[in-house]
Amino acid sequence: MDSDDRFATTEYFIEATPFEQEALLLRNENLKKYKITQDNMGIVKTIGYLDKRPVCVSFDWTKINACRICFYYSESEVVDWKMIDDSLSKTFSVYREGRRTNVRNFGHVLEYIRQKYGC
Closest Cα partner for 64 from 104, 24, 16? Predict the structure, then answer.
């Protein structure tokens, strides 16, 4: 999909709109003990077409302590979540291995960070 180095170092994918991402990172009491570093240079990729219209996914990165997280969401006029899931599964082993979630289940990400980094 992309040769962006940030994909190679991504440890978890989280499906979230920009508002959900902001609420999660900036208004979450559970994150006060973590160092959060946001990367303000996100990218948008066209992963396929549906009825000759592009299906686009936006990717933004944040580090929580040393763990790079990729937030993604579809921002195109048409959305095909099956196409998005298939594309991400095919392209990224981390996604394929199940290190993906949504905002509601963000606790899985924090547990992963605690186990891997001892936070």
Answer: 24
